Amino acid sequence: VEAHKGFFGDDSGLNGVKLFCDPAGTPSSSVGPRGSWLPLQTCPQRQPLVAFRLRVEPPRGVWDDVAASNLDAMCGDGTMLLGQGTLAGTWGNWSQPCPTSWGVCGIRTLLEPPQRAGDDTSLNDLQLFCCLM
């Protein structure tokens, strides 16, 4: 996440999402060049990630656009992992949860590359994919 840069700064909000899968590794999709990784959040032991929602700011015309700014996630036991991104925009609906005995196993993001001139937004959409656990 890139922190708010003030009135004259070009904010890009959420720049990437990374999944930490035990023991499968750390898949991520495209990641923008700005911001820094926030502290790792995990589901309780043996609980898969099963749903998410994004906080998104709609296009603002001549004003600074951010697009996705935050992410909340839900674990199989109902534990909520609350995002620590910015407050730009509004929360969308929760994704359809993975079916029982399934969990998130893949990720795909829509990322705007850095703009030479103009307004950077970075992460614009996210899809998580479910697999039988």
Automatic annotation (TrEMBL):
SUPFAM superfamilies: Vitelline membrane outer protein-I (VMO-I). InterPro entries: VOMI, VOMI_sf. GO terms for cellular component: extracellular space. It comes from the Eukaryota. It holds the Pfam family VOMI. PANTHER family: VITELLINE MEMBRANE OUTER LAYER 1 HOMOLOG A-RELATED (PTHR18841:SF0), VITELLINE MEMBRANE OUTER LAYER PROTEIN I-RELATED (PTHR18841). This is VMO1 protein. It comes from Eubucco bourcierii.
